């Protein structure tokens, strides 16, 4: 899958987020779903930065309105200390992330703002998540490769930076020059030429079952 491979320190942070999100109770009358997590890649604007995300979002229709359920957590490390950053989904700002004295921060988004948790106004599945400065320069970015993406398909990518299966909308797959494999899961990877790692998992796999965030600085 095209989400960046998580390094050891990032994997530990992602696991903590996943476990935290898994511990979040599902709304009454709903069935909890597995959590999807992944790495956020550093851009040239902050090459030393690292980040991870975790989400277990679902949606339901109420009349003409779409209701979002679940949570999204974003954590960033190695940014400027005591600074504010914007969190964006597909380029649209949805909230802010504030770093502590060590340059680390995390934020949790819920369907409704509560305490330190901010409101989740956009379904992040199949979309890009980015963290940017207040001037609009992205410092971290990544894609939410979630097989539950509404209208999503399995897209085989063969670019130098992105190889293997990714869960995308069909239009996004076409825009990236990918090949649609239809609806379904990217696990196991259905794309030609993709071999399993020694541990038996598809190359680049970062999904996990588990948790979400608590909207505090992660110094």
Overall residue-averaged pLDDT value: 77
Task: Provide the β-strand percentage band.
Answer: 35-45%
Q: Number of helical runs?
A: 2
- Alpha-carbon distance between the termini? 30 Å
Sequence of strands across the biggest β-sheet: 7-6-10-11-1-2-5-8-9
Give the total of beta strands.
Answer: 14
- Contiguous runs where pLDDT drops below 50 for at least 5 residues: 1-8, 196-214
Gyration radius, in Å: 17 Å
What is the ordering of alpha helices and beta strands?
Answer: HEEEEEEEEEEEEEHE
Shape: globular
Helix percentage range: under 10%
Structural class: mainly beta
The main β sheet shows up as: 9 strands, mixed
Short synopsis of the structure:
This protein has helices at residues 8-22, 170-175, and strands at residues 36-42, 50-55, 58-62, 65-69, 72-77, 84-89, 92-98, 105-110, 118-119, 128-132, 138-143, 152-158, 163-169, 179-180. It has 219 residues and is mainly β. The two termini are 30 Å apart.
Describe the structure.
The chain contains 2 helices and 14 strands, in the order αβββββββββββββαβ. Strands 7-6-10-11-1-2-5-8-9 form a 9-stranded mixed beta sheet, covered by helices on one side. The protein has helices at residues 8-22, 170-175, and strands spanning 36-42, 50-55, 58-62, 65-69, 72-77, 84-89, 92-98, 105-110, 118-119, 128-132, 138-143, 152-158, 163-169, 179-180. Mean pLDDT is 77; it is low at 1-8 and 196-214. It is mainly beta.
């Amino acid at each position: 899958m095209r989400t960046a491979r998580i390094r050891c320190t990032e994997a530990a942070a992602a696991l903590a987020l996943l476990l935290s999100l898994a511990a979040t109770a599902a709304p009454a009358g709903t069935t909890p779903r597995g959590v999807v997590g992944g790495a956020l890649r550093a851009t040239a604007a902050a090459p030393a930065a690292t980040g991870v995300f975790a989400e277990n979002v679902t949606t339901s229709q109420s009349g003409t309105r779409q209701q979002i359920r679940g949570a999204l957590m974003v954590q960033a490390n190695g940014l400027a200390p005591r600074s504010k950053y914007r969190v964006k989904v597909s380029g649209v700002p949805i909230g802010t992330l504030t770093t502590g004295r060590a340059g680390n921060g995390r934020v949790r988004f819920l369907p409704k703002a509560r305490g330190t948790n901010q409101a989740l106004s956009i379904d992040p599945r199949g979309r890009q998540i980015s963290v940017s400065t207040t001037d609009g320069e992205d410092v971290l970015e990544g894609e939410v490769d979630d097989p539950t993406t509404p209208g999503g398909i399995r897209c085989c990518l063969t670019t130098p930076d992105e190889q293997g299966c990714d869960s995308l909308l069909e239009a996004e797959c076409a825009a990236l020059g990918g090949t649609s494999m239809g609806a379904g899961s990217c696990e196991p990877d259905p794309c030609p030429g993709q071999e399993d790692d020694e541990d038996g998992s598809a190359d680049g796999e970062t999904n996990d079952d588990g948790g979400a965030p608590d909207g505090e600085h992660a110094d």
